[in-house]
Write the structure tokens for this entry.
Amino acid sequence: MERQLFSPVYPEIRLSYGNGNLAFRFNITEEPYTTEEGEEAIGYRFDEIILTEGAETLSAKQQMSDLIHEYGSSEKVDHFVYQGQKIWLDKATRAGLKLRFESEKALGIEETSLWLGTQEFHLKVSDAIQMLFLVEQYASACFDNESSLKREVEQAETLEEILAVNIYSGYPEELIIG
């Protein structure tokens, strides 16, 4: 393992290739050193990992898979617009709201509320249930796309094929409700 000293810090390097990106993060530690001018300074040391043949492709697949998940879980994907506001309901919240709204419907309650933080939205129970169905379909389409992209990366045989995967493609259009 070769060790190199750098100043300033570059904890993350992003490379773009084709339609995708790879990010390489390094383990960095501060290390004092003396400059050519004789001044004391702090440098940053990272370990350069020398990959064995084939490991480069495996590492790239893992990096790309992580980036796909990161993008698929970001606010750029995980959101919908309701009454002009970007919001997201995670799976557990959707399941809880579905149970609530269906129980309200079964009890003959016609109006309900949806709380997002401190903001309250009033809506018909039937509209609330329909909204949850739309959000669930959107979330499922996003999940399916993320899984498809990960499979495409896993099936790639070369670094060039891995880097050619467009990790931003295939997601459904932004869901706008109300």
User: Anything to note?
Assistant: The CA atoms of residues 84 and 172 lie 19 Å apart. Helices lie at 55-72, 91-106, 125-155, 159-163.
